[in-house]
Design goal:
Helix content is 49%, strand content 8%. Helix 1 crosses helix 3. The longest helix is centred in the last third of the chain and has 35 residues. The two termini are 39 Å apart.
């Protein structure tokens, strides 16, 4: 998907985050939000972090130690969910303390996996921020979901199970559609001769 010139789409854009680099995708999403475009990012647990896993884990563990000495309940708050991690990454690229920035962040929704309500809709990708396009094939990388799992996210197995169910259901739906289309074509061929006189009459009237 490329940025829309001279405006934005009324419907929200659903982006499949799998295979995208976290920082580059966050920059693209932040720009679209500030232009007024609603964005939904799914499969945030499959977003790619450049660099080896242990380096990213060390960076995040150092980030977890940042807190208020007087009263840690005041913040900063460290999210363990991959969707919230990506949300906070985008927030850092948006002037979220202003009214414009707050409205922009209200137009962003992030999810781990693909919710059942968004499953039927077509997902888009952003080729210019994908790892296979931008990164060196020999460069090490890790997934945001693995880092989140190691620092306290408890739902990786649940999301994986739901994703397996979704893919099985999708394959069954595709096979069903093919069977229905085959039956329809067979029915059309069987009545083609019977409908020929009526087709001639329609042709005489310009249809």
């Amino acid at each position: 998907m490329e940025a829309v010139k001279g405006g934005f789409k009324k419907k929200p854009i659903i982006i499949d985050g799998a295979g995208h680099l976290k920082g580059r995708l966050a920059a693209f999403v932040a720009k679209q939000l500030l232009l007024g475009q609603r964005i939904i990012v799914v499969r945030c647990d499959q977003i790619v972090c450049s660099g080896p896993y242990y380096r990213n884990q060390h960076i995040f563990l150092a980030y977890l130690r940042k807190r208020c000495n007087v009263n840690p309940k005041r913040g900063p708050f460290h999210f363990r969910s991959p969707a919230k991690m990506f949300y906070k990454c985008v927030r850092g690229m948006v002037p979220w303390k202003t009214q414009r920035g707050r409205k922009a962040m209200c137009m962003l929704h992030t999810y781990e996996g693909v919710p059942s309500s968004l499953s039927p809709y077509r997902k888009m990708v952003v080729p210019e921020v994908m790892r296979v396009v931008r990164s060196n094939p020999a460069a090490k990388f890790c997934y945001l979901g693995k880092v989140a799992h190691e620092v306290g996210w408890k739902y990786r197995s649940v999301v994986r199970r739901l994703e397996r169910r979704r893919l099985i259901k999708k394959r069954i739906g595709i096979v069903h559609k093919k069977h229905v289309a085959a039956f329809k074509n067979k029915a059309v061929r069987s009545v083609r001769k019977e409908l020929k006189p009526f087709q001639i009459i329609k042709a005489n009237y310009g249809y």
